[in-house]
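Honest question from a wet-lab person: if I give you the sequences of every part of a complex, can you actually get the arrangement of the whole thing, not just the pieces? Trying it with mine:
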Amino acid sequence: MSKRIEVKAAMSGIFYRTASPEEPPYVEVGTEVKKKQVLGLLETMKVFQKVRSPVDGKVAEILVENETPLKDGDVIFIIETE
Amino acid sequence: MGRTFSKILVANRGEIALRIIRACKEMGIQSVAVYSEADEDSMHVKQSDERVCIGPAVSAKSYLNIESIIQAARDTGADAVHPGYGYLAEKKAFAVACLESGIVFIGPKPENLALAGDKIAAKTRMQDAGLPVMPSSPGGVSTIEDARAFAEKIGYPVMVKASGGGGGRGIKVCHNVAELEEEFPVARMEGRTAFDNDEVYVEKYLTNPRHIEFQILADKHGNVIHLGERECTIQRRYQKLIEECPSPALTPELRNVMSRAAIEAARAVDYENAGTVEFLLDSDMNFYFMEINSRIQVEHPVTELVTGVDLVKEQIRLAAGGTLDYSFDDLNRRGWAIECRINAEDPEKNFKPSPGTIQEYHAPGGYGVRLDTHLYQGYELPIYYDSLLAKLITFDLTREGAIDIMRRALHEYRIEPLKTTIPLYCQVMDDNDFREGNFGTDYIERFLPEEDGEEDDDL
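Yes, you can. This is the full assembly:
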């Protein structure tokens, strides 16, 4: 049975899908990911934190666009896991 | 006497914007605040005489937007701009844009800004002027082979530094060849992305030195004075946390020698307005020129409390052509001042930022307390800007007295429910080594929880 796991913003901040504008996004829908793999970045008050996958699985949905300001607890990704 | 300004645009936000607006009010000068869409409710916007929205929340489109700020100055008829610190304060292009628009830039000349931003050129100029500088590669290093050769010549540990770096970014400490080979390309990359300049240099690294800086003032008529030193040793990741004036490490003789060197440094670059000359001091009391900061410093209040000189008003007066007709020895100096930079960061959790809305606010007061802050009850911290909440500064006739007042004031201060660095400073004020003035740059580490290896999440 596959489960859908939500990945939420740990605090409010600006979400980035890439490390810099020239680089490709960390993940796309369908990307296979390992537990702790970096999915994106969250910038809060000039500090960047990595958003990591809590499980092994596959990126099922990306719910927010690059450079979107998020609130604490907003869902960013849905990871599908076995 | 002389000319002054009728209206100053303050090209900054937060506590420093408020600090400058307060100086304007006291001088009878009109003030214009600029603000981003995220800062509509910010205190500097409420306190200024006029206000102009200069763009969206992201700094690159507002507080770093030269065109928009110059336009705001024109529209409001401001005859001068004060840049504060950070943002455009040390951007030569901004100073030039002001000049070309007939607006006075309250700060150093564009040439001073360019030199201060280029650390290799600044060091070379200081060496030529006879100042002691840290042994380093004579110019930029572009290959790992050259980096290795210089490191072997000057001896490990070494630092790889981005030539265009600042604020502690683009600095890598390497204890051996392996670390150098790993960090060299990273430093170049960071320099390229953060400062658009991938030139790096290799410099001798002092283990646990002290950071001592001298406040400089220079007028347009060739007079250069110093206003004593600030002790800025207590840092974390090259970000200053606690500063004081004077330094518990300096003897009057050493202060004399270092202050002369600081004035020499300012003269060597034909410096104008307020600036700071930073030195490193090793355990044998040898000092080395590090850099010139061509702006008002965050930690300027400790100098103000001890010397009685309002540095922001002096910046404004000197930019209008005023003369320095006094020197350090004429000042009625007394006592001791200490500053704690209170950040919205959790010291228990690797200094993670702590955004939010202030639900309960109580500011400390009483004898010997100065508080520079833009906070108020109900204020929501924007996520877009740095985490400096307040500068708490205390003053007394003795260092011990200033520490006692600081400890008391820190315990009074309530900024709920945010996590702040206040509990960390409470511990420091009770620490014997701090009270005895006995510390180096690694001092703060003893108060921090061991990093558990998974805490690599802040980049």
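Two things worth pointing out. Chain B has three domains: 7-106, 135-204, 210-447. The radius of gyration of chain B is 21 Å.
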